[in-house]
Write a structure and sequence with these properties.
By secondary structure, the chain is α/β, with parallel strands linked by helices. It has 5 helices and 6 strands; from the N terminus they run βαβαβαβββαα. Bound molecules: inosinic acid.
């Protein structure tokens, strides 16, 4: 049996993100537990550099930085796509793979890059998974971290305009629609983020 997780018993949580979509999504998820979410951007907190070696390390360093700076518990996430035939790339560099030489971000460009790399290995499996790490850190330096995952295969060409990032090439296991073709609620029920949040709530918000 796993060790008991530290319980969250404050009424406010700092969401260590500058992405307003993410902050409001996390706010909605935690509202039923009587928790008010405050975004790091509203507090003018700096964004630490993501120097961790894996998703959990990056989520933890962002959560610790926000908890230390505010003296309050803070939640951070880190996510990305790992392609088996590419040894887990783009992985923690999923956002960086979309960076074009002119500095703009373009996920069509990133998906083409993945397809080109897979084209070099025509016999390799096209399996991949999305990972979402969530870390809840307290000002005393304690953290509880969770990793959610959804498995699938990569399709080409891209399919669907819903979602964001790599959604148009990701076909979850057992499904017919890519994340880009699915209704958002359907994706949110089975995604790596949903898995990580279910673990977080079961671990730290169930009293
Ligand atoms: P971060 O977690 O905000 O650092 O983002 C990591 C990157 O992973 C995002 O910019 C997306 O490209 C990719 N990513 C993470 N989750 C998803 C998802 O649910 N669908 C598509 N792409 C995702």
């Amino acid at each position: 049996m796993s060790a008991r997780r530290r319980q969250f018993d404050a009424d406010e949580i700092i969401v260590a993100s500058h992405n307003t979509g993410k902050i409001s999504e996390i706010g909605d998820l935690l509202a039923p537990y009587g928790v008010q979410s405050v975004g790091a951007d509203a507090l003018g907190l700096p964004e630490p550099e993501e120097t961790g070696a894996d998703f959990i390390a990056n989520a933890e360093l962002k959560a610790h930085a926000a908890a230390r700076a505010t003296g309050r518990p803070a939640l951070a996430d880190d996510s990305g796509l790992a392609v088996d035939a590419l040894d887990g790339a783009p992985g923690i560099y999923s956002a960086r793979w979309a960076q074009k030489p002119d500095g703009t971000r373009d996920f069509d460009f990133a998906m083409h890059k993945i397809e080109m790399a897979l084209g070099q290995k025509p016999d390799a499996p096209r399996t991949a998974h999305f990972i979402c790490a969530l870390s809840l850190a307290w000002p005393d330096g304690h953290a509880e971290s969770f990793e959610g995952r959804v498995d699938g295969t990569l399709v080409w060409p891209m399919r669907g305009k819903n979602g964001f990032g790599y959604d148009p090439i990701f076909l979850p296991l057992g499904g017919d629609l890519t994340f880009g073709e699915m209704a958002p609620d359907t994706k949110h029920a089975i995604s790596h983020r949903a898995d990580a949040f279910a673990q977080l709530v079961a671990g730290c918000f169930s009293g």
